[in-house]
Write a structure and sequence with these properties.
This protein has about 400 residues and is of the alpha+beta class. About 70% of the residues lie in helices and about 10% in strands. The chain has 14 helices and 6 strands. The strands form 2 sheets. Strands 4-5-3-6 form a 4-stranded antiparallel beta sheet, with helices on both faces. It has a two-stranded antiparallel sheet with strand order 1-2. The longest helix is centred in the middle third of the chain and has 51 residues, at about 200-250. The protein starts with a helix and ends with a helix.
């Protein structure tokens, strides 16, 4: 029973250590040959199961069942070797002649083992049970076991060689190589002591090393790559947002530009056509005296004049989007709080402008018009009425200044 206890312990440890691979399936298929590694673990689990049953059946002398399980045991053992070779070949990805030889050797040993086991049914050449139920290992059992040991050892040397050549994955390749050597040594000891569970112990420690130093390292590397990609995506989104803002923002004043204004105009037309607007007002602004400032003080002073006029507009209508739609023309769209206080805000704004008009400061003419649900079928109608009022105010301010 001690023999089976080791196998049960190995099964439990394999499942615990590789729970994220076997049960949770926690690894992305993008991690190198995770599928091949998972199949290898399944192969070891099948081997452990047959090993566990063998110890129980042999202990209680169920010879027929023990014979069947022994056949299953040898098949699972060679199948584990085959899956190991496949995993190593896929992981290293060297695509050379030696890799092809390893594939052929793995398939050859698998076919040979099955053939010998079939032959053993008729003429024992691999193993047999004596009349008293004692297990007897025969020459081909040792030949096959030594062949498996040799294949493990060859794959180990192959991995260690590429670990020496490849600095990036050196520790992973070396780990795979050392695991292969460790398992081959445990199988050799098993060959010398058939009734001791050294092969189970070898697989148990080998799979633990693979998970800790190869698979977890792959996972950490993928996590770091994911973080790098997320950071790059965040920077790209930030750059895209900045580019989008630049496309919608006037470079001189910092308010929204003509392109943004046209976009909003389209949205308002859609809302009007779908009867989704009840309250909306448009104010059109135009700076007086900009040409005089440019002619007498230069365009730099003219730009400053435009920015000061924009500041006055934004300070008063601070809850509304403001657009620069021309050289000295601005538009504000009033909804919500600013719409409710539109008359008071416009009166306050005009008081500042009247004062400026008398003291040679920035003068901005304005005209406000409200949306009329009964007659306004598009935004342009509101704008034209507001623009007409602005022009009237502009003429009034010029007349006051001249007088």
């Amino acid at each position: 029973m001690l023999y089976s206890a080791y196998a049960i312990l190995a099964i439990m440890l394999l499942i615990i250590v590789n729970f994220d691979v076997l049960i949770k399936n926690d690894y992305s298929e993008s991690i190198t040959v995770i599928h091949a590694y998972r199949l290898y673990l399944y192969g070891i689990l099948i081997f452990y199961t047959s090993d566990c049953l063998w110890g129980i059946l042999y202990e209680y002398k169920f010879i027929t069942l023990c014979y069947i399980d022994t056949v299953f045991y040898f098949i699972s053992m060679i199948f584990a070797v085959f899956l190991w070779t496949r995993f190593v070949v896929l992981y290293l990805k060297r695509d050379d002649i030696f890799e092809k030889i390893l594939k052929i050797l793995g398939c050859f040993l698998l076919i040979t083992q099955i053939t010998i086991l079939i032959w053993n049914q008729f003429a024992p050449v691999m193993f047999r049970f004596s009349e008293d139920g004692t297990f007897k290992a025969l020459p081909l059992r040792y030949a096959q076991l030594y062949a498996q040991i040799a294949l493990y050892f060859i794959t180990s040397v192959y991995s260690l060689f590429w670990g020496w050549r490849n600095t990036k994955f050196r520790h992973r390749y070396r780990t795979i190589g050392m695991v292969g050597i460790f398992v081959s040594v445990s199988l050799l000891v098993q060959a010398l002591n058939p009734l001791l569970p050294f092969s189970s112990m070898g697989y148990m420690l080998g799979s633990s090393l693979l998970h800790t130093f190869v698979l977890d390292d792959e996972k950490r590397e993928q996590h770091d790559e994911l973080l790098t990609l997320l950071e790059r995506e965040r920077c790209q989104r930030k750059e895209l947002e900045q580019a989008r803002k630049m496309a919608y923002v006037d470079s001189l004043t910092g308010v929204r530009n003509k392109y943004a204004y046209f976009k909003l105009e389209q949205q308002i037309d859609d809302r009007i056509s779908n009867k989704l607007i009840e309250q909306l007002a448009v104010i059109v602004f135009d700076l007086n005296n900009l040409k005089i400032v440019n002619d007498h003080f230069g365009h730099k002073a003219g730009d400053q004049y435009i920015k000061e006029g924009c500041r006055l507009i934004c300070t008063t209508f601070k809850h509304s989007p403001v657009f620069r739609v021309g050289g000295d023309e601005f538009v504000a769209i009033l909804e919500g709080e600013d719409y409710e206080n539109r008359e008071e805000l416009l009166r306050s704004f005009n008081e500042v402008i009247d004062y400026n008009n008398c003291h040679d400061a920035v003068v901005v003419a304005s005209g406000l018009e409200e949306y009329r649900p009964q007659t306004d079928y598009c935004y342009q109608l509101i704008f034209e009425r507001a623009d007409k009022k602005m022009y009237e105010r502009k003429m009034q301010l010029k007349g006051e200044m001249e007088s």
